[in-house]
Design brief:
Layout lengths: L8 H22 L6 H16 L6 H11 L1 H27 L5 H18 L2 H7 L4 H14 L1 H18 L3 H37 L1
Helix pairs in contact: 1-2, 1-9, 2-3, 2-4, 2-6, 2-9, 4-5, 5-7, 6-7, 8-9
Length: 207
């Protein structure tokens, strides 16, 4: 097997990395208005789900198509996620700003962060794969995170390590601009697609 052959691990890695770079740049560009961060994230999730299944086609074409298809539901989902994340941020800010650092704000912040992660960690990938109401999508994310709690914690640890790397210094932050969105979405897809397969198999067995 040639090191630069089409079937070589090196060639496959370079192809995968190039797809991740394209996805990350597309996500950044399409998220610039902020209001469109939701459908952009759903579009990335759709493509990375396909990448895990080894069914990806034209990356840019698929991304743009899914971005358009998910504008109606993706925009509210993204805005709700941003508002909830800001609320979590405020809890920690209150804890630091108030005199004597009241412990209740720290506890509230931690609980809010846990609920936020459980409710949204799978939400965009769920919307990318299934047709459902917005509230049901968020609820399903929470239910999956609860049912597969161990896997979810492991996923959060992986994502946290990636974030630490991307914010380590200016160089890694620059790298993050080109790989963070696609790379982190791929990480979620690698975990959640196995869960999706299990759930779908259980539903088929129950029918």
């Amino acid at each position: 097997m040639k090191i630069f052959g089409l079937d070589s691990p090196l060639y496959k890695f370079i192809t995968w990395l190039w797809d991740i770079i394209k996805l990350s740049v597309l996500w950044t560009v399409f998220s610039i208005p902020i209001i469109t961060v939701g459908p952009a994230t759903v579009a990335v999730a759709y493509v990375t789900n396909q990448m895990v299944e080894e069914q990806e086609g034209r990356i840019a074409h698929t991304f743009v198509r899914e971005f358009r298809n998910n504008l109606k539901k993706g925009i509210p989902l993204g805005l709700i996620a941003l508002v909830c994340l800001y609320a979590v941020y405020l809890d920690f800010q209150f804890y630091q700003a108030l005199e004597d650092n009241p412990i209740q704000f720290l506890i509230m912040g931690i609980l809010a962060m846990v609920i936020f992660l459980m409710s949204f960690i799978y939400a965009f990938h769920l919307m990318a794969r299934y047709e459902n109401k917005l509230t049901r999508t968020i609820r399903n994310s929470y239910d999956i995170a609860t049912k597969y709690f161990g896997r979810t914690i492991l996923l959060i640890l992986f994502l946290a390590l990636e974030l630490v790397f991307f914010f380590w210094n200016l160089t890694t932050m620059l790298i993050g601009v080109f790989v963070a969105a696609g790379g982190m979405s791929y990480t979620v897809s690698a975990f959640v697609m196995k869960i999706f397969y299990t759930i779908e198999k259980e539903q088929q067995t129950g029918q």
